[in-house]
Specification:
Elements (H helix, E strand, L loop, with lengths): L5 H12 L5 E3 L8 H4 L16 E2 L12 E2 L21 H7 L6 H11 L7 E2 L5 H12 L15 E4 L1 E2 L1 E2 L2 E2 L2 H6 L7 E3 L2 E9 L2 E9 L2 E6 L3 E3 L2 H11 L2 E2 L1 H6 L6 E2 L5 E3 L3 E3 L2 E3 L13 E6 L14 E3 L15 E7 L6 E5 L8 E4 L6 H18 L2 H5 L4 E4 L6 H8 L1 E2 L29 E3 L14 H16 L2
Parallel strand pairs: 1-9, 13-26, 14-15
Antiparallel strand pairs: 2-3, 4-6, 5-19, 7-8, 10-11, 11-12, 16-22, 17-21, 17-25, 18-21, 18-24, 19-20, 20-21, 22-23
Bound molecules: flavin-adenine dinucleotide (FAD).
Flavin-adenine dinucleotide binds next to helix 1, strand 10, helix 7 and helix 12.
Length: 475
C-alpha cells in the first residue's frame, strides 16, 4: 500500500481484515500535531511539515499566478488537513460515468454503509450565530433550505455533514487504519520513488525508508498516493505517455497516454465581508459550517456552484482588513477545464509540473463570476447587512468582478482525474481499478475519478477505497 490517506487507510484496513499481509508506506509522519485534531485549527497546517505544499505552474487564465495546492503528508493524508465536509455528490455524477459497478444505484447503499460503519458523519452543529445568519440570508435570497445535501438532491443551503467524533477530527486513518496498525507493517517517512517490474508484472516498489533507498517486494501494489502523486509515481516508473517518458530518458514499461492527463479541480474565489458586530470565534468548532449548491444558469444536470461559508475573513496574503468578519467563498464545481501533471525530471526531487488549466474553459469562468455575484447578493440580505452590519471588503464595491475572479481564483482542493477509470484509450485503470496492461497493480484514490463529482471529494475518495477493497477481497 502506497499512501495512508483518505482511500489508502480504507484499503489497508479491509485487506488486513481479509487476512492479507499488508505493508503500508506513507511519506509523511505520525499525526501528532494538535492542529490536526482541533477542528478550529486546520488552517494552521498549511505550509507546515504535514503539507506537501505544492504549487501549480503559472495559470494563464488566472492572472498568471501559481496556485498553492496543500495536500496532506501525514498518516490520514489530506483527510488530516481538510475541512472534514462530507458530500456524496449528485446521482447524475455517478450515472454520468457510465461505468459498471459505479452507478448511483450501486454507490448509494455503499455510502449509507460507510457513514454508519467505521467512520462517523454528523451534522456540523451547533451553528455559530453568523453561520445561522448566512442560512437565513440565503433563504431570503430565494435559496431553498436543504435539510441534507446527501439525500440525492444537492440544491439549496445546508448545514455541512462532517467526519467528527467527540469534538475531534475523525479521519479514515483514525477510523480504519490506526485500530489495526499493530496487525500490519506501517512505515512512516517512506517515500516511494517508483515501481519494480518483471515484464508487465509489478513486483514491488523502490522506496526511501528513513533516507535509505530500498527495494521491497509485493504480490500486489496498491497506489493510493492521491491525484497528484499517484500519476507521478507511475510516470517515474515508465508508465505513461511513451513520448513524454522517452523525452525524460525513462524506459517505457507501458504506454498509457492518460497518466497525468485529465487533471481537474473545483475553484473558489473569496468574497469577504467586514462586520460592525464582532464575529467572536467559537473555540473547538470548525470555521466553516454551512454551504450551498446553486445552478447559475438553466439546463444544467447538476448545480455548477457551491459556495462555502467561513466565520472568519479568509484573506489572501495580499489582502488586508479587520481580524473579524466572515467569508462566503464563491465556488465553481462543474469544471470543463482540463490540465495535467507532468514530471520535470525522473527523480522525486524534481519539481512536479502541475497545470490545472484553471478557468481556461469559458463556462468555468462564467460559473465562478455568477457565484461571486450571488455571494455579494446574499451578503446584502437583512440577516447579514442588517444584523451584522456586513459590508463587502473583497471584492470592494465598484470592483470589476470578472477581473477579480481571474485575480483571486484558488483551489477548492478537489484535484481528480489523473489516473482516470474507464475503458477508452485515455483510461488508466479499468472499472475494477486495475491498471490497464499491467499485472499486480491497482490505483485506489481520487485520481481515478473520470469526472469530478459535484461537491467535496473526500467521500468519493473513501468510496474508491471501499470499492478497491471489495474488488480485491471479493467481500
Ligand atoms: C486543505 C484541504 C481541504 C479539503 N477540504 C475537504 C473537505 O472539507 N471535504 C472533502 O470532501 N474534501 C476536502 N478536501 C479534499 C479531500 O481531502 C481529498 O479529495 C481526499 O483526501 C483525497 O484522498 P486520496 O486518498 O486520494 O489522497 P490523500 O488523502 O491525499 O492521500 C495520499 C497519501 O499518499 C501519501 N503519499 C503521496 N506520495 C507518496 C509517496 N511517493 N510515497 C509514499 N506516500 C505518498 C501522502 O502523504 C498522503 O498521505 C480537502 C483537501 C485539502 C488539501
Amino acid at each position: 500500500m502506497v499512501g495512508a490517506g483518505s482511500a489508502g487507510s480504507v484499503v489497508a484496513r479491509r485487506l488486513v481484515d481479509a487476512g492479507a499481509a499488508v505493508t503500508l508506506l506513507e511519506a509523511g509522519g505520525e499525526d501528532v500535531n494538535p492542529a490536526i485534531h482541533d477542528p478550529a485549527r486546520a488552517g494552521e497546517l498549511w505550509h507546515g511539515p504535514e503539507d506537501w505544499d505544492l504549487y501549480t505552474v503559472p495559470q494563464e487564465h488566472a492572472a498568471g499566478r501559481r496556485l498553492h495546492l496543500p495536500r496532506g503528508r501525514v498518516l490520514g493524508g489530506s483527510h488530516a488537513l481538510n475541512a472534514m465536509i462530507w458530500v456524496r455528490g449528485a446521482p447524475a455524477d455517478y450515472d454520468g460515468w457510465g461505468l459498471p459497478g459505479w452507478t448511483w444505484a450501486d454507490v448509494e447503499p455503499m455510502f449509507a454503509r460507510i457513514e454508519k460503519d467505521l467512520l462517523e458523519v454528523v451534522p456540523n452543529e451547533p451553528l455559530h450565530p453568523v453561520q445561522q445568519s448566512i442560512v437565513d440570508a440565503c433563504v431570503a435570497a430565494g435559496l431553498p433550505l436543504n435539510p441534507d445535501c446527501n439525500s440525492g438532491t444537492l440544491d439549496g443551503v445546508s448545514v455541512e455533514r462532517i467526519t467528527l467524533r467527540g469534538g475531534r477530527r475523525f479521519n479514515t486513518w483514525h477510523a480504519y487504519g490506526s485500530p489495526v496498525a499493530a496487525r500490519m507493517t506501517v512505515h512512516t517517512g517512506a517515500l516511494v520513488h517508483r515501481l519494480r517490474f518483471s515484464g508487465s508484472r509489478v513486483t514491488g516498489v523502490v522506496v526511501s525508508l528513513g533516507g535509505v533507498l530500498q527495494e521491497l517486494s509485493a504480490d500486489l501494489v496498491v497506489l493510493a498516493a492521491g491525484a497528484l502523486a499517484s500519476p507521478a509515481i507511475l510516470l517515474r516508473s515508465g508508465v505513461g505517455p511513451a513520448d513524454e517518458l522517452r523525452a525524460l530518458g525513462l524506459d517505457v514499461v507501458a504506454d498509457l497516454p492518460g497518466v497525468g492527463r485529465n487533471l481537474h479541480d473545483h475553484l473558489l474565489s473569496p468574497v469577504i465581508f467586514s462586520t460592525t458586530r464582532e464575529v467572536v470565534p467559537a473555540p473547538g468548532r470548525p470555521v466553516t459550517q454551512v454551504h450551498w449548491f446553486w445552478r447559475s444558469r438553466d439546463g444544467l444536470a447538476v448545480p455548477d456552484t457551491q459556495p462555502i461559508c467561513f466565520s472568519v475573513p479568509m484573506y489572501e496574503p495580499w489582502m488586508s482588513g479587520p481580524p473579524t468578519g466572515f467569508s462566503l467563498m464563491a465556488g465553481m464545481v462543474t469544471p470543463e477545464s482540463r490540465g495535467s501533471v507532468k514530471l520535470s525530471g525522473p527523480s522525486p526531487d524534481d519539481e512536479l509540473l502541475i497545470d490545472l488549466a484553471a478557468l481556461s474553459a469559458p463556462a468555468d469562468f462564467e460559473s465562478l463570476v455568477a457565484s461571486v455575484q450571488q455571494c455579494l447578493e446574499v451578503g446584502r440580505a437583512p440577516a447579514l447587512a442588517g444584523e451584522w452590519g456586513a459590508r463587502p471588503r473583497y471584492p470592494a464595491p465598484g470592483t470589476d468582478v470578472r477581473e477579480y475572479v481571474r485575480r483571486t481564483a484558488i483551489t477548492y482542493h478537489h484535484q481528480v482525474g489523473t489516473c482516470r477509470m474507464g475503458t477508452g484509450p485515455d483510461a488508466v485503470v479499468d472499472p475494477r481499478l486495475a491498471v490497464h496492461g499491467l499485472d499486480g497493480l491497482v490505483v485506489a484514490d481520487a485520481s481515478v475519478l473520470p469526472r469530478v463529482t459535484t461537491g467535496n471529494t473526500n467521500a468519493p475518495a473513501v468510496l474508491v477505497g471501499e470499492q478497491a477493497a471489495r474488488f480485491l477481497t471479493g467481500n
